Structure formats: structure tokens, C-alpha cells
Amino acid sequence: MNPENQLPVMEKLPEYNEIEPETTNVITEPYNFTITRVVQYEKSKNLSIYLTILTFFMDPILALISVYFLNKHENEPDPKKKKIYSQIITYNSMRRRRTQMTVQLRKNQREESLLKKRNIPLSNDSDEETLIEGNSLEQIKEMAQSSDFNIQLAAIQAVRKMLSSERNPPITKIIDIGMVPIFISCLTREDAPILQFEAAWALTNIASGSTEQTKCVVNQGAVPYFIRLLNSKHQNVCEQSVWALGNIIGEGAQFRDLVLEHGLMDPLLKLLKNDIAINFLRNLTWVFVNLCRHKDKPPSEEMVLQVLNPLYALINHPDINVSVDAIWAVAYLTDGGSHVVDLIIQKDFIQALISLLDRHEIRVKLATLRTIGNVVTGTDEQTQIVIDCGVFNYIDALLDSGRVKVIKETLWFLSNITAGNQDQVQNAVDSKCIEKVIQLLSHKDVAIKKEAAWVISNLAINGSKVNVEYIISLHIVPPLCELLNINDVELIRVVLDAIKAILKHEPVSIALLIEDCGGLDAIETLQHSNNEDIYMLVTSIIQQYFCYDEDGEQELT
After folding, report:
1. pTM for the whole thing?
2. pLDDT tens digits, residue range 371-413?
3. SS3 for 484?
4. Among 3.40.640.10, 1.25.10.10, 3.40.50.620, 1.20.1260.10, what is the CATH number of 475-556?
5. Residue 360 to residues 14, 137, 211, 394, 403, Cα–Cα distance (Å)
């Protein structure tokens, strides 16, 4: 049996990320071919592999091999972020890069705008003995319904303090004994604002818990009472109600829509016109963030139109927490689709946002880059508006910031510009930022290398012949080829796409450059990659640009 005839069968071996981290038994094809392939796999993936021949079958060519992987590839791509590749790179597949980046950012930077938050006092309210000391929860519940105001207040405060503990607040126990309806009844006590405040605080912290715990607060009917309290003349009661509603809205789009149906927006917007404390304004802005998120079901156009004017004012607020949350709210609105982005553009947000790139606070820069970055994942017309507002005046400083997150976000933004039409690619070239991008291909941070590679790859694919000749003149080939030695599947794919696009424009001279800088050796090694997309890409490149006739002349296919 000719081992070469078994190649299609060998391709059925598990993908690298499908293999269990400890042991996988694999029925292999021809023994001598298998050994070669696994050794090549070891060489290309830098893995330690032990092969143990367990048994031979009647056909001596077959063997059962146990493959032990002692260490797993540290840059194995997250399946949640897996991109779809094909041999033919289309405009859309290169352009749409919003989802991966957004998911990563929202997982890693929850501090920017938390979905929910508990109200935990900075210090103990009081060390003095209270009327409820030594009583059980059931007894405290009875006291919370007392006709004696002092006893009732002490009981409500006691439970609120339990819910405000930093670790493991007994939310479930307090729900189970029936405290939620008691708290809600306290919200109606206009004669006792301190009782309203304590009850609202307790319900806020219950709503900060799990989905079921939040549902309990909603299903017991708290929402309309909270909305009514937004008109309270007592600012602490009003603020605590805003906080509670923010936690409910943060649970999901269904909860957001329910709160909106109860008439949230008018009293909420009215609060912005009042003279309120800065902490209150921070909480209010955070509620706007929660209203604007939930990509699975974006907010209605009616709500978007209601929040745009206040958000426009808040993005320039001198308090950084208010400003950053307002920018994030706009960023989440851009998830609502092209029509919502058009509404944002019509309100002149783009110029205002771009001017924020000059702010020195890193959080402001990151939130702003995310927002305008989402805009340029839209239509060419929307992308052009961002360019026309002078965004390239800020790019050099952002790339020179020395901040990994800022550089990475800026490159992500640029990659969506170079995924545009040829005029937009030319705008990027004219800005002279591409030289810095090429330098960043050699940055020590792999994430930055990857984003820089996306910029160049999109430019090579979508740009004109003149654009490609420009990056060739900047000696793009050696740093690109160097990236092929990094054990990162996504990065290798992007680089191979770039190399293939550049070869298409200058097949002979670039093929020689690739060979001279050691790129061909790396490409040939990647023929043995267990990743099908990489295997197909390198096979295509070799067959088209590195096949020679008997006289040593390049055969272009």
C-alpha cells in the first residue's frame, strides 16, 4: 500500500483543538506514514509527543498508536472566537471583525461598566446595639411588619445590612422567608423616607444577585414603585431607586423592556436636568449604559432617540466615570445595526467622539476607539464620515502611546479602515501610519502583532496595486514571514492571506524575497499543519508561486 494514497484518510485525524489534553487513542493508517506525520506535527507545534505501539492487527500496515500530549499549545484559538476562512477571501469576511473584539473586551474589562452592582457601605453604619440583636430571621421578619415605626425601621435596617455584607450575602434566605413583599410595601411609605431608602437599598442588593433573584423582585411588583420614587423629593431615595432599576435592566433585554413599559424614560431624563450630586450622576449614567446594551435584542429606535441628546452632553463631562460610561453607552448603541449608526451620525457624535481621542485618560481613549471602531465596521459611507472627521490626525499619537490596549484597539480600528474600499485604503496610506503598523509587526506582544497583521492583510487584499507596491517598498515581506514562526493559528492564517495577496501583484520578485528571508522554509513546514485552512493556504501558495520547471524557471499557475 502506497502511503501517499492514504493522505485523504490521514486528514481525518482529529484537529488539534479537538484532542483531549491528556490521552487520545487514534486508529492510524499506514504505520510508516503516520510516524512521519506525527513527527512533523511535533516539529511544527513544538509539542512533546510519545508514541507507543500497542498492537498490530492482521494487516501489519495498521497500528494502534496512543498519543500523549504533555503540554497544550498555549495560543490555541478560542472556539468562541473562531473565524471562518476560505481559500477565496471575500470583502465581508475580512471586514466584519466586530464580534470577536467586542466579546473579548466585554469579558476582560467589566470594570468599565458593570451590568449589576451592590450598594456596600464604606464602613459599618453603627456599632451601637440595636433592637433586633439576638433575634432570628423569622423574628426579624415579624418585627419588620411591626406597627411600632422604630422597631420596623430597625428590622429593615438589620436585613439591609445583611444584604450589604461584602461576602456571601444571604439573598436566598431573605427571599425565602418572604422579605421581598415587605420591602416593597415600605416603598409606599411617603411619610417615612428613611424607611423607603432602606427598603430600596435592600431590594437593590437582592436585584444584584442571580437572574432568579432579580426575577423575584420584578415579579413581586417592585418596578412601578421604583419608577414612582424617581420623582421623590428626597434625593437619596431617588438615587437608590435609580440604582435598583439599573440592576434590573442589567439582567437582560426582557427586563429592560419591562421597565421601559412602566414609563422609565420621562422621569429618568428629568433627573438629568436637576442639580444632583456627582455620585448620583454616575449611577444615572450607568443606568443609561445598561439601557443601551443587550446586543441580542437592541433597544427600540424610540428609546435610542430619547437617549442620544443626554449622552451627547455626558460624553464631554469633566468627571471621567461619567464620560467613560456615556461613551460606552454610545458604543453599545452601535451594536443596533446600520440604521442606529446613522442616527448617531446625524446627531454629530462622530466629530465629538474623535476629539476625545486627545484626552489623556486611557479609559476615555479605549471607549472612544471601541465606539468609532464599531462605526467603521458598517457601510463604506459610515466609514468615510469617520475618516472625513479627521480621525487620522490622532492615529500616530495613539500608536506611539506605549499602552498595549490602546495600540491594539487602534490597530483593530485601522484594520477595519483597510478592509474598506480602495479610496479608504488610500486614506490610510496617505496618513503615513502604515510605516508604524509595519514596525508593530515586530512588537513583543503577540496580540499587537496579530492586529498589525490584520491591517496589512486587509490592505494587501483590498488595496490597489500602488498600495501593495507601497508596503513592498517599506520592506513588508521579512517581518511578515517572521510571524509564520509564531505558534498562533489565527495569526498564521492572516499572514498567509497577506503573503498570497502580495504575491498576486509581484509574483517573481516577492517569491525571491520570501525565499531569501527564510519565509519559504516556514511555509513548507506549515504544509504539515493539522489545521486544514492553513494546509490549504500553504499548498495553494506553493503550487502557484514556488513550483519550478526542469530549467529552474518559476511556473506560475
Report:
1. 0.76
2. 999 999 999 999 999 999 999 999 999 999 999 999 999 999 9
3. coil
4. 1.25.10.10
5. 49, 51, 38, 12, 12
